[in-house]
Amino acid sequence: MRLSRIDLRREAGRLPWIVLLVFVLLAVGISAGGYLYYKREAAIIKEHAQDDLAATAQMKVWFVTIAVGALIVGAGTGVLFVSKLQLTSFSRKQREDALERQALVGHFDYLTRYANDIIFLANPEGRIVEANERALETYGYTREELLQLHISDLRSPETRASVDADRKQAELQDGLRYETVHQRKDGTTFPIEASSRVIEVQGQHYYQGILRDITEREQGEQALRESERRFRELLENVNSAAVMLDASGRVTFCNDYLARLSGWSRGETTGQDWFAMFVPEDIRDTVRQVFQYAVQSGFCPVHYESTILTRQGEKRLIAWNNTVLKDPQGVVIGTASIGEDVTERRRAEQELRNSEERYRILFDANPFPMWVVDPSSYAFLAVNDSAVRHYGYSRGEFLGMTVKDITLPEEVPAVVADLDQRPVDREPRVRLRRHKKKDGTIIDVELYIHPVVYSGIQARLVAANDVTERRRLEDQFRQAQKMEAVGRLAGGVAHDFNNLLTAIKGYTELTLFDLPAPDPHREDLDQVRRATDRAASLTRQLLAFSRRQLLKPEALSLNTVVREMDKMLRRLIGEDIELATVLEPELGQVQADPGQIEQVLMNLAVNARDAMPQGGKLTIETANIELDEAFARTHPSVYPGRHVVLGVSDTGAGMSEEVQAHLFEPFFTTKEKDKGTGLGLSTVYGIVKQSGGSIWVESRIGAGTTFKIYLPRLEAVPPYEPVRTRAEPPRGSETILLVEDDPAVRQLTRRMLEKIGYTVREAPTSRRALDLVCSSSEAIHLLLTDVVMPGLSGRELAERLMASRPDMKVLYMSGYTDDAIVRHGVRENGIPLLQKPFTLETLATRIRQVLDS
Fold first, then answer.
1. How confident is the model at residue 251 (pLDDT cuts 50, 70, 90)?
2. pLDDT tens, position by position, 3-31
3. With contact defined as beta carbons under 8 Å apart, do 762 and 744 qualify?
4. For 222, which of 334, 486, 621, 665 is 20 to 30 Å away at the CA?
């Protein structure tokens, strides 16, 4: 049951004072405990309260309540009732709700205080009463400084006038969003985006502002506007066609370049169907389908080339760069394209491809080996088929090699210098070099080096002309010219030498003829005659080399000559050298002097013997051979046709190329001093050449030597009848007219003729001989005249004298060589000739033959 305050007072008056004391103490204890409990709770509330003021107010409430309770107890009222009512009003649930509310308030304070946006509260007068940390950082004020400011103080001077209007507008519209400019403490300004509204706090209205610094956004927008401006200027001024199409394919923009290129003005073009106006009909549907696919899918080919039609109907090829245009929602609204007119470029590229194709054909099909060389690495970048065939390397092998790999080591620096040198003009450089094939063969080449551009780099085009054979022929030709010059010299020397030998030998024989048999001087004179014979033999060798000796050719078989010399050759070469003969059974005949062929074999055998001092094998072969045009082209002085070949091979030491180059020169020898005259092989050379043949040598160091002599083969030639001499010189009594320009020879010949019974009339020149005959009627039975003389030659003299003396016989004599006699018209069949030097017996026999013929 519930007691009223009056009932309690009545009952209390009836209690003893001791009881009253107990109750007082109890009330004091409860009040003290309650005070301590509520003080702790107030501390907790203070910890979670928004500010110290709220906590302090709460504590005061509890303190007043406790104090009032204590006063009531002291006055004798119902203390227990009062205390119970107060404890019941502050239950556990109420405490938890208060704590939750305080936690939410603290979390909200944390969010606003550390938010990225600026947040502040202003009272109705516009003075700032609260602001977060972002505001302090942005404006540069301390909290105390900021709370002293009016919101208009945050504005830039030019925007402050609109502060009140913005506040009123925020009140009327329940919130306002706008952009303006604020100012920092240091005076700098910055753009902001503001969101403001009026809020109520504990029954009072406040102006709340949430602001965002949009400096970066403004800069981005400004940059975007600037970019758009520049982009438009670029489109307007770029040296390319620019066009934008909407989703239906109509032109929304085109620049002046496209207008100039197409011939349509920008006004005529804008709004028109691009495909119907600009795209040729044959590709119109295809291009439109590509565009429609781009609009539908949002994807278009970035690069492609397409033809457009100009107003005049001309087709121009454009290389387009494309992109799709989208609205903010990502919907495709059209395309933008920038194109370059590549009509001329593609035409030039096509011409270049055609030119490159022609170049490739010329390069690959060229008969000369050709390479493209990188001058920085000297590597082969390209190689033609001729180089592959000629050098023996595959194309792949060549492309892994450099110029150095086919060049002889001693010539590499020169070749590298040729490739490094920058040409001052487009003229090719020509160089003579030596290359090495895959099989090791060394060839001489003429290199033509020309600058070219290959795959974008400055390269060198190198063409090689193999001149190995040509150089060999040139060397042979020069050798032949040299031999010809030496031969002419030898022939001239032999003429004068023969005259001297004629005098020496003739006077020796005359003296011997007059001396009695027991005379002691005969032996001395015999030695003089033998020396003269050796000198005459030397002269004959010179004449043989120069191909100017008088031969006595006849049809003969080389087999016969080889067989007849077999025994002599075996004795000549010695027992330690094996002699083998391989003779063609049906060997054809040749026209040659047998004695000269014997001399050829003997000289070659002697050389082979000297090349094999430790013994070896000498092989002599004969064969019929047919020489073709190819062989003749590589062997000067050889004519195609049927030949007989005489081969002489040894297994000796061989010869170097340098020795072979001088092998047939007179007086050239590799033998020791006093071991050879150097005329053996030169004599062989001369005999073979004068016989209408040719001689070739093949030799290598350590591999022996082979001489091959090619002589023209004869079908049938009447045998040559040699003149047989008698034991005693024949005599005569006829009158002989002797014409000789050399006094010694003339005097000697006169004494010889008179010795054997002839009457001699002499003249030193042809002119004196004519005068002598014209001034005398004496019979002249024989004219003995030199062939080559000053003024009229012997042949001309004979022709003039025979006009008035038709019965006169003529015998020519000469110390000159065969070609000189031929030039003077004497070397003909049937014309008698006496070769100097001659003996008394030879002179007497030959004169008698002519007189008796």
1. very high
2. 444 444 444 455 455 656 766 677 667 66
3. no
4. 334
Nearest to 434 by CA among 456, 461, 464, 460: 464
Q: Round to whole Å and give the CA distance between 737 and 762.
A: 6
Q: In angstroms, rounded to a whole number, what is the distance separating the alpha carbons of residues 283 and 564?
A: 98
DSSP string covering 643-709 = EEEEEEEE-S----HHHHHTTTSTT---SPTTS--S-HHHHHHHHHHHTT-EEEEEE-TTS-EEEEE
Q: Give the mean pLDDT of 695-718.
A: 81
DSSP 105-151: HHHHHHHHHT-SSEEEEE-TTSBEEEE-HHHHHHH---HHHHTT-BG
Three-class SS state of 724? coil
- Partnered with residue 177 across adjacent β-strands are 195
Given a cut of 50, whether residue 316 has pLDDT beyond it is yes
> Does position 671 have pLDDT exceeding 70, yes or no?
no
What are the pLDDT digits (tens) for 70-111? 444 444 433 333 333 343 344 555 666 555 555 544 544 655
Q: Are 176 and 197 in contact (CB under 8 A)?
A: yes
Encoded amino acid at 325, one letter: L
Closest CA to 201 of 121, 134, 110, 106: 121
pLDDT value for 720: 45
Which residue type, as a one-letter code, is found at position 180? Answer: T
Tell me the C-alpha distance between 5 and 526, whole Å.
200
Q: Minimal CA–CA distance to 141: which of 154, 152, 126?
A: 154
Q: How far apart are CA 280 and CA 60, in angstroms?
A: 95
Q: What is the pLDDT of residue 498?
A: 74
Q: Say how far apart CA 669 and CA 681 lie, in whole Å.
A: 9
CA distance 141 to 135: 8
Q: 639: how many CB neighbours lie within 10 A of its CB?
A: 13
Exposure string for 441-477, b = 16+ CB within 10 A, e = fewer: eebbbbbbbebeeeeeeebbbbbbebeeeeeeeeebe
Q: Residue 502, class by beta-carbon neighbours within 10 Å (0-12 exposed, 13-18 middle, 19+ buried)?
A: buried
Cα distances (angstroms) measured from residue 547 to each of 137, 633, 682, 688, 817? 122, 23, 10, 8, 8
Cα 197 to Cα 726: distance, rounded to the nearest angstrom: 163
Q: Are 345 and 256 in contact (CB under 8 A)?
A: no
Query: Are residues 694 and 685 in contact, defined by beta-carbon separation less than 8 angstroms?
Result: no
Measured CA to CA, the distance from residue 169 to residue 194 in angstroms comes to: 13
Taking only the tens place, the pLDDT of each residue in 621-658 is: 999 988 887 777 766 667 788 889 999 999 888 888 77
DSSP 400: T
Tokens 């080399």 correspond to: 545
Which of these, 658, 672, 624, lies nearest to 644 by C-alpha position? 624
Per DSSP, the chain holds a count of helices (H) and strands (E) of 30, 27
The mean per-residue pLDDT over the stretch 140-150 comes to: 91
- Other CB atoms within 10 Å distance of the CB of residue 351: 10
841: tokens are 């017996």
* DSSP class per residue in 44-81: HHHHHSSSHHHHHHHHHHHHHHHHHHHHHHHTTS-HHH
Whether the Cβ atoms of residue 835 and residue 539 lie closer than 8 Å to each other: no
- The pTM (predicted TM-score) of the whole model is 0.37
3-class DSSP assignment, residue 419: helix
Torsion of CA 259, 260, 262, 268, to 10 degrees: 30
Which of 430, 413, 419 has the alpha carbon at shortest distance from 452? 419
Q: In the structure encoding, which two tokens stand for residue 255, read together? A: 């620049």
**Cα–Cα dist 52/36, whole Å:** 19
Q: Taking residues 247-264, what's their average pLDDT? A: 91
